[in-house]
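sanity check both lines:
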Amino acid sequence: MAKRKPHEEQELPFVALMDTMTNVVGVLIIVLVMVGLSVASAVKKVLSDLPPVTKDEFQQIQEQVKQLPEKLDPQKVEEQHKQAEAELKRVQEELKTVDTSDLQSKMKFMDLEAFQKQLEQRKKERTASKAETDKMLAEVERLKALLDQTPVFQPPPPTYVRLPNPRAYPAKPNETRILVAKQGVLSFNQTKFLQPILDGMEKVKSQLEFQKVEYPPFAKLLEGILGSAANAQKAWPDIAPLVDRVQMEYVAQAYKALVAGGVQPSKQLLSAIADLAIPTRQTMPVVAEAIVAAAKGDVTLWVKLDPAVAPAPPVIKASAAAGKITFSWGAITKEVKATPKDVVGYFRDLAKIPSIENLSKARTIYDATRIQVLIQRAATSPLLAGSYGFEAKILPTLPYVQLALTPKSGGGETVEAMKQPNSPYIRLMRDIKADPSGVAVFQVMPDAFEAYLEARKIADEVGVAATWEFLAKLDLVVNITGYEVQRLVPTPPRAAAAGVPAAVTIAPPKRSLD
């Protein structure tokens, strides 16, 4: 068998390789052509499916693209990632060193049973609170129901209101009191009311004087001044004769001053002291103390009683010298021995001169009991009929008898009655208006202000001069000051004690018309 040539054995692999490469390249070209055709077809389809874009929309899209954040640098992102991992490792290492022993110790004290009890307690409190809330809600519903049943408030009609107009009060007013109660008004003119009573007393005034003086009514007064019942009863015969002209407390105090100074009191000496007290304008105790001092040789107190006022010349003069005392009363001068008997005798004789004798008898003190009986009889007289009933009262601290007035049943006028034309109230307002000095004084009970406004409206329409004040009660008290009676309680001393300032008093505001 013939041998192949060497060069032929080297050519076959190369040719085969070339054929294979050719085939591969051809296949690739065909694939690329097919892919290109597919891509072109896909692009064409996408473009055909896209909606048409206007020029304005294109510009808007470009603006949105510009506003997009810048592209991140992959290198920066990698660095940030490495930093985050390093921070995570650091935190993990710190967590490994955290001390959990305190939390674990607290967990040991957590008692599940205690928490269960607290839960039960909270449930009970919630139940109680719910019950209370339900009760309150029920009360709210009840109040709502009552509110729905409550009638709508209707305001009262408008009230007459007047602005005050302050004016001077008359110098000598003739006051008529208008007492205003809730039901109506009562009128009271003190002058008109008292005048019939005073007229009746004037007719029988001699019968109102002391007819018989008894010790018991004055016992407490005299015993308090003279110190004991024995002293008072001993002094009574000398004191009693002056009961109708001097307050008994002054007579008793003068008697006590004489006894304390060693001068023997007597009815005649006390009567002389009463007469001397009038021109000297002093009380009997002051005159008695001056006489006692003069009896001891000191005429200073007696000279101080001089009634003359400078620049008039003095009425009383006295001087002591060589065991004698020279007394002067005006132009009458007398010298007496400086002995108690002679000095007391001088004063007894001085009271007998015509300008002094019986001066104290010009004053009359009446028997309060007899006045009381007379007024009680007058209270039953039909001639004194009016809106008030009255009775006489004797107060031991007052030197006069009081009348206690009480409104009679059915007296006065109601608010509706006084509004009627020519009603008694309107006629009264016209009478007050006609009097130049007439004043209506409205005295208003605390609950009667509305009635007062109605009464005052009528008075203003008539043009009456008026004022008003509050009144605690309708009962009135009137003093019978024209008939002095004996006080049975000593008056408190007026002079302040040494070193003690006198009490400060504030005068009440002057009354004015409004």
Observations:
- Residues 1-5 have pLDDT under 50 and may be disordered.
- DSSP finds 17 helices and eleven strands in the chain.
- The longest strand covers residues 174-180.
